[in-house]
UniProtKB/TrEMBL annotation, chains A, B, C:
Keyword set, alphabetical order: Apoplast, Secreted, Signal
A Pfam family this chain is assigned to: Dirigent
Keyword Signal appears in the UniProt entry: yes
GO cellular component: apoplast
Chief localisation class: secreted
Name listed for the protein in its UniProt record: Dirigent protein
Provenance organism: Gossypium barbadense
Lineage of origin: Eukaryota, Viridiplantae, Streptophyta, Embryophyta, Tracheophyta
Task performed by this protein: Dirigent proteins impart stereoselectivity on the phenoxy radical-coupling reaction, yielding optically active lignans from two molecules of coniferyl alcohol in the biosynthesis of lignans, flavonolignans, and alkaloids and thus plays a central role in plant secondary metabolism.
Quaternary organization: Homodimer.
Single Gene Ontology BP annotation: phenylpropanoid biosynthetic process
Length: 163, 163, 163
């Protein structure tokens, strides 16, 4: 297998909506209705580098699906990754989190990856919070965009995009 | 393989936004713009137990990716599940739905699962509706949180979190 | 393996929220708070046909997980697809995009698929934009609904449903 060692700058933009919950115990479900005329939104911009190493002594990606007949675009080939996210381009710069999940070659004609991942942050107020990514990564494009479909911790209800 | 028989309490919180659609027939796309000063939100809280049985006579989980060299954190190992969701901790208590989808060991250093699932409900007004989950499950933590990234049926446009 | 050649009409409904970003350079994160009394929503309705061909000379789906003991509902069986989306039911009609990603048989009792996909559009103003799908596809039902959990390009921040 050829070596893949990618380094990508991610900028994440997302929006948090405020939400108020009413909890009533002891049954399967409870609903409440909330009419709001004002919504508070918090916009957060994160900026970091993504390091994916498929080869060498300390790979961060492991191939989990290997097909008998590999095509030109590796269609169907799938990796599980646990990739460091760092503050600066250098892999030895400050660790801000980890990208954990799957990427898979999902096109018969291009080098397009389907990304299904969680970005779990460990830095400052983001420690313990994560965002969920589901989208396409056009590997060879200069600008790539993936959508942030949710989050946990301080990123509850988050939506946004990564590029 | 060691037996995994987990029982988890899930509390789901999510928000539904009202939406009004204008449909015009006969072409690929139509758009409309809606300015609203008031938004109605419905907050639903569901509370149920999740049963995942990887071993025994009637497993609810099936290993779909088995790697030649298993690591301490089972990195890359992946299961397909069709797990019952019940009202009370006992597996024989009332069935309220099923969790169907994938979980995968996604960390090289911890027991963290990437969850990509649909929770399809069968109880009361929720029958036929589902929510989509994408996020990380820190198996050994007392409180775990995953994000709800969408839904269908009465959960259209839902977002929220499960813990 | 039996042949699967499905053709499905998809109607996508989704809502786009306007968002304003403040970008400050040079550090890992920046936040801003935006109080809005009015929200602009754009509702887009897309209508197209989905062609999935698992057999023949030019398959658009490739089985990536094949289990030793196949069950009645193919539980665990997983495909990677790169399926054309067309304007009309005929596969040779105008191409409007491609559905790229994974579907997996996720039920022990029904023919239910878990869909984890990106629909990348190539037509008109949608060219280069994509939506992310995560949800259940009840193959044998007349009306099926999956949730749109995010998007990129002009579909940034999109949510909605496909049926």
């Amino acid at each position: 297998m050829a070596s893949i060692a990618a380094q990508t700058l991610f900028k994440l933009f997302f929006t948090l909506f405020s939400a108020f919950f009413i909890e009533i115990n002891g049954e399967f479900s409870r609903q409440s209705i909330n009419m709001s005329t004002k919504r508070m939104e918090k916009i957060t911009r994160l900026h970091f580098y993504f390091h994916d190493i498929a080869d060498g002594k300390h790979p961060t990606a492991m191939q989990i699906i290997r097909l008998p007949n590999k095509t030109a675009t590796s269609f169907g080939t799938t990796f599980m990754v646990d990739d460091p996210l760092t503050e600066k381009p250098k892999p030895t710069s400050k660790l801000v989190g980890r990208a954990q999940g799957i990427y898979a070659f999902a096109s018969q004609s291009d080098l397009w990856l389907l990304m299904v991942m969680s970005f779990a942050f460990s830095e400052g107020i983001y420690n313990g919070s994560a965002i969920s990514i589901l989208g396409q990564n056009a590997v060879l494009d200069a600008v790539r965009e993936m959508s942030i479909v949710g989050g946990s911790g301080i990123f509850r209800f988050a939506r946004g995009y990564a590029l």
